[in-house]
Amino acid sequence: MKKVTLVLSDGTRFHGKSFGYEKPVAGEVVFNTAMMGYPESLTDPSYAGQILTFTFPLVGNYGVPPFTLEANKLPSFMESDKIYVAAMICADYSEEYSHWNAVESLSDWLKREHVPGITGVDTRELTKVLREHGVMMGKILFDDDEEVPEADYEGVNFVDKVSCKEIIRYNEGAGKKVVLVDCGVKANIIRCLIERGVEVVRVPWNYDYTGMDFDGLFLGNGPGDPDMCQEAVDVIKKQMSMSRKPICGICMGNQLLSKAAGATIYKLKYGHRSHNQPVRLVGTDKCYITSQNHGYAVDGKTLGSEWSELFVNMNDGSNEGIRHKTNPWFTSQFHPEACSGPVDTMFMFDKFIEELNA
């Protein structure tokens, strides 16, 4: 294994060994505290432009499943068609893997998709640095004297990079028709809608769907800063001014609908990326354990008078969803469909379908 160095923007260095593709890269360094789910995380478009650190010490022990497509053309075991992280970091990479569904090692997968992987890093210390300082830019270098271009995260429209470029239809001819705004949507969100018997029309993030014939609007997840997606916000505002049709949003979808509702967005110090974020349903004592992946949050205090918070985070009090007080418009900042995490909040999809049929 070739020696490799992670250099953070404050000059801090972490040394390890390469087990993935060997190329220098730069990106925003973030951490995820989940104990499992690296195939899902690595293929989540919301990680575009980021170097992902896994805090769970052992990674790779159950290998990588095959990339196969279902009849609906969605990947069976991944969240998209490729790895989206810029690179990944772990403390201990398992060279041997064992799983009934594995067809290759994590190392082989990373190399095939040209994504660097680093092992042997003190991820506990790296996570402490990121928690104290906040997420920061970093470079992965295979030679301390080697230079790679600086990478930007803030101010870059990553949604435009990962969104589909043309309309894609799923489950054509089914009952109700749902327009899904693709900001970098995970495959399981589409699957959860299809399983509930609706036709899904997936459109690019800035597409004007207001003239289309549909029954409900679904705003998907995606990477980066929602303030870069004003075109999508303008279309949402237009739709809300024209119709009371149900609207549901997840993650980036929560932030875009909130912006359309007049709210402002701020960047979290180190984000929420894990399988164990507790959120409370506002006005009740009900608390749910959720999966999350976002670096920005909605300032709930800036919502318009016709809106209120639907969920709040029990760790830091940040917003986890909004609702309109009279119209069937609601969101979650967390991922109710997270395949490798808790599914306590899958009812969000059921509620959306109920509103479609109301």
UniProtKB/TrEMBL annotation:
Keyword Transmembrane set for record: no
Highest taxon, organism lineage: Bacteria
Every Carbamoyl-phosphate synthase small subunit N-terminal domain range: 2-141
InterPro entries linked to this entry: Anth_synth/Amidotransfase, CarbamoylP_synth_ssu, CarbamoylP_synth_ssu_N, CarbP_synth_ssu_N_sf, Class_I_gatase-like, CPSase_GATase1, GATASE
Enzyme Commission number(s) from the entry: 6.3.5.5
Active site (record annotation): 251 (nucleophile), 335, 337
Enzyme class: ligase
PANTHER family: CARBAMOYL-PHOSPHATE SYNTHASE SMALL CHAIN, MULTIFUNCTIONAL TRYPTOPHAN BIOSYNTHESIS PROTEIN-RELATED
Entries under HAMAP family matching the protein: CPSase_S_chain (MF_01209)
Subunit structure: Composed of two chains; the small (or glutamine) chain promotes the hydrolysis of glutamine to ammonia, which is used by the large (or ammonia) chain to synthesize carbamoyl phosphate. Tetramer of heterodimers (alpha,beta)4.
Role played: Small subunit of the glutamine-dependent carbamoyl phosphate synthetase (CPSase). CPSase catalyzes the formation of carbamoyl phosphate from the ammonia moiety of glutamine, carbonate, and phosphate donated by ATP, constituting the first step of 2 biosynthetic pathways, one leading to arginine and/or urea and the other to pyrimidine nucleotides. The small subunit (glutamine amidotransferase) binds and cleaves glutamine to supply the large subunit with the substrate ammonia.
The protein's name: Carbamoyl phosphate synthase small chain
Organism from which the protein derives: Hallella faecis
Taxonomic placement: Bacteria, Pseudomonadati, Bacteroidota, Bacteroidia, Bacteroidales
Gene: carA
